[in-house]
Amino acid sequence: MFKNYLKIALRNLRKHKLYTAINVTGLAVGLACCLLILLFVRDELSYDRFHANADRIYRVEMDVQGSEGEERWDVTLFSVATNLPEAVPGVEEIVRVQPETRPLMARTGTETRFYEDHVISTEPAFFNIFDFELIQGTAASLAQPNTVILSESAATRYFPGEDPVGQSITEYEQWSSDAQEYEVVGVMADMPHNVHFRADFLLSMATKLPAFQDRLDHVIANTYVLLKADQSPAAFEARLPAFVQNTFPDRYQTREVGLALMPLTRIHLHSVVEDDIEPQGDIRYVYLFSAIALLVLLIACINYMNLATARATRRAKEVGVRKVVGAQRRQLIYQFLGESVLLTGLALIASLALVQLALPAFNGLMEREMSLRLASGQVMAGLALAALFVGVVAGSYPALLLSGFRPAMVLKGAVRVRSLSALRKGLVVFQFAVSVGLIVSTIIIQQQLHFVQHTRLGFEKDQTLIVHARTSLTDQADVFRQALLQQAGIEAVGRGSAIPGERTGITFFSEDQIEHYEGDMFVFDNYDVDAHFTSTLNIKLAQGRGFSDRFPGDPEGAILINETAARELGWEDPLGKTIQFNAGPRQVVGVLQDFHLEDMHTEIAPVMLQLSPNASRYYVVKFNTDNLPVLLASLEQTWARFVPDQPFDYSFLDDDFAAMYRNEQRLGQLFSVFAGLAILIACMGLFGLAAFTTEQRTKEIGIRKVLGATVPNLVGLLSRDFLLLIGLACCIAIPAAYFVMRTWLDDFAYRTEIGAGTFLMAGGLALLITLATISYQAIKAALANPVKSLRYE
Fold first, then answer.
1. What are phi and psi for residue 260, nearest 5 degrees?
2. H or E stretch covering 65
């Protein structure tokens, strides 16, 4: 029986090559999209789950009530890890992790040195909580000051072909000119990619503890806790408010500070921290891409259902004859489902080839290293079940419909399937509603990306180079600046402790420290700059003056603030107002027009600029040249004269800001790809339906031509119904896409407006694509010889 079903199925697939090609291609593309997205979803959901005790590991986070409302921090006071185990029962292990800000690491006594992005200070309990493999050494070694454990890749980079244990690494910190030597006491395996933070260097926290002892309530770190197996997280968290009240300093009590537990396995996708230890994912994108995968696959399944039901009358006689000779309905259902599953099996094989071809580009776009492990029995079983499921879903309705025909009516030619026309129309509307929705979403995402990348930021980011000097040039800051200004093509140079786009230091002031201010503690984003910083970036003044070397009292007695700070402080006339610092009062001499420190997701915060001779972490270089490689080479030579023992490190400010929107750019590209594929699959189905419709109306077309119908008349006749369906799909898709995209745009503090032109563009594009798809069949039928049409059987 099975052999007979297979033979009939293959015969039908060969006989109707066009429909077979359309169905196999549509299902293959749909399955390939689904597989790629499932690889991404599986990877996102796997973060931090490989730890044996992952379900008992939590990050202790801090809720802080600030001037702009409650904020969630991924850090706590340094003293929390010291006091929490004794004050609150239920802690099995606790560890502090303190990231370093891109220090220069060097093999001691050599020229082998690199700026490193993944350096942390931590404690021996790190390996008791997290399951990272130690290849050499022991975790206990980190209890000693001036020790470090390297990752395998770091060990290879600094000690190629050698045993690193017992050798030395020197750290040159970004925040100071200090150098600290560490003995290598171990090597760990490289961390997998699916962790919410990475580390190539584990520096001993004991090295810094002596300097922290007198200010444990001023230093912050990421704190991770492993709860005991019998400890309820909810009960443990309920005891944290009392711990805060009993142990936190008074200045935190007035700010309504609280502690909370964040499960380790939720950090990557559910973190609400504004500036996490590393950039994290977003569970909403997992839901969104999962929905897109299902919708694209559903569109492909609908193609099969549409074409199968459209051809129902062609197979009605086959069903009638089979029933007359004794075939039962159950057997016919098996036959038609078998055809569908066979078709899906062929599509699955084709989709696997498509996935392997697309995976390198997909990995590049998603910045991952995902793979489809076909050798795995679980993977193969899953794929087989997926093909079976899709085959049954796609073929169930046609199978039930065809097997239900009554043989007497079929053989008399009295079968009527007009109700199927309404079903097909509904399915076409659904397909194109999804496709149009994706087109609208793509257009809006691209408009928002254009908006955030081209909106005036309050400073000039183009043709601006940032030299990452750290504190290497503190004593020669002005001399180095003058040396840069002598380079051809350089127009201006300024210095600062931070640059737009980077997280700055923050400064707290109480009510009694700020003149004419009534409110809670006020927080400024704080910049130390030189007198040329604002003019180099072309940050405009709204009131007053900027810093100037002509005013010798500016370094000790003057500050600049932005318009947001003046507004939130309630100062209608901010010039001359004073703020009390530890060293004495400082006076507001100028108000800067608001400029964006961060991306467009975040509202502009209050900013304070202070004039400081030690502001030399960054040099902002405004250039104007057509020969950038020559300029960079010249700058590197100048750097080497001043700092011969450190690499020349630079970036372009426009690239730094563009990197802030990498997730949005990735989203826009993926929407473009999936919208295009959804349209492609839907159009393939539409092409098949158009071919079938014109075939069904061959005699009608011949008669109309004989009676004088022109080619445009016939093309319009054959196209009209399809265009009406696409118009209806647009009417359904546009409101739904508007609601979804409006919700997405709410994540941006500054966003583009969604205009009617967006929807007109999407609708017009959908109609144009539809017309192009069906016009070939319509024109072909309209140009056919009417004599042949009238002789058509």
1. -145, 155
2. strand 57-66
Contact present, 369 and 193 (Cβ < 8 Å): yes
Kindly write down the DSSP assignment for every residue of 695-726, as one continuous string.
Answer: HHTHHHHHHHHHTT--HHHHHHHHHHHHHHHH
SS3 at position 272: coil
Query: Cα separation of 2 and 381, whole Å?
Result: 21
Strand ranges (E), 123-161: 134-136, 147-151
Task: Please state, in angstroms and rounded to a whole number, the distance separating the CA atoms of residues 288 and 777.
Answer: 36
Q: How far apart are CA 618 and CA 530, in angstroms?
A: 11
Q: Output the CA torsion sign for 594, 597, 603, 609.
A: negative
Predicted structure pTM score: 0.79
Range of weakest confidence among 37-41, 157-161, 427-431:
427-431
Q: State the Cα–Cα distance between residues 352 and 347, nearest whole angstrom.
A: 9
Q: Which two tokens stand for residue 59?
A: 């990050």
Distance CA 144, CA 89 (A): 28
What tokens were used for 335?
């036959």
- How far apart CA 9 and CA 342 sit, in angstroms, is 8
Question: Pairing relation of β-strands 179-188 and 113-115?
Answer: unpaired
545, 526 contact by CB (below 8 A): no
User: How many helices (H) and strands (E) would you count in the chain?
Assistant: 27, 25
Residue 115's Cβ-count burial label (10 Å; 0-12, 13-18, 19+) is middle
Please list the residues that pair with 579 across neighbouring strands: 514, 586
Of the candidates 637, 631, 632, the one whose C-alpha atom is nearest the C-alpha of residue 488 is 631
Q: Which residues of 670-709 are buried (b: 16+ CB within 10 A; e: fewer)?
A: bbbbbbebbbbbbbbbbbbbbbbbbeebbebbbebbeeeb
DSSP 674: H
Contact 90, 170 (CB under 8 A): no
- The two beta strands, 134-136 and 104-107, are unpaired
- Which residue reads 């022991």 in tokens? 138
The angle, 0 to 180 degrees and rounded to 10, between the axes of the packed helices 418-454 and 711-745 is: 50
**Which residue has better confidence, 6 or 283?**
283
pLDDT in tens, 423-471: 677 778 888 888 888 888 888 888 888 887 777 778 888 888 999 887 6
DSSP letter at 227 equals E
Handedness of CA 185, 136, 97, 87 (dihedral sign): negative
Distance CA 323, CA 403 (A): 9
CA-CA distance, 362 to 369, in Å (whole number)? 9
Burial track 426-451 (b if 16+ CB lie within 10 A, e otherwise): ebbbbbbbbbbbbbbbbbbbbbbbeb
Q: Report pLDDT for 196.
A: 93
136 and 195 Cβ atoms separated by less than 8 Å: no
Is residue 28's pLDDT more than 90?
no
418-454 vs 662-696: helix crossing angle, rounded to 10: 150
Greater pLDDT, 220 or 391: 220
